[in-house]
UniProtKB/TrEMBL annotation:
GO terms for molecular function: cytoskeletal anchor activity; dynactin binding; dynein complex binding; dynein intermediate chain binding. Transmembrane segments: none annotated. This is BICD cargo adaptor 1. InterPro entries: BICD. Residues 3-72 form a coiled coil. Keywords: Coiled coil. GO terms for biological process: microtubule anchoring at microtubule organizing center; positive regulation of receptor-mediated endocytosis; regulation of microtubule cytoskeleton organization. GO terms for cellular component: cytosol; Golgi apparatus. It comes from the Eukaryota. Belongs to the BicD family.
Length: 73
């Protein structure tokens, strides 16, 4: 009986190790996906910030041109 109990315990631990390994793999994969998504969001934010800065610079130039045209008129 003792040998049978030991084998059951070993089998139980093997199954638990397999379950935990699978869970760790899945969790790691999810973390990697989240990190990749975060990088995409950061890149998108940077692109939008650059576009905003360009639009703001264009706005300032156009505003200055308008003021100059008003002075001439």
């Amino acid at each position: 009986m003792a040998a049978e109990e030991v084998l059951q315990t070993v089998d139980h631990y093997k199954a638990e190790i397999e379950r935990l390994t699978k869970e760790l793999t899945e969790t790691t994969h999810e973390k990697i996906q989240a990190a990749e998504y975060g990088l995409v969001v950061l890149e998108e934010k940077l692109t939008l910030k650059q576009q905003y800065d360009e639009l703001e610079a264009d706005y300032d130039c156009l505003k200055q041109e308008l003021e100059q045209l008003r002075e001439v008129s």
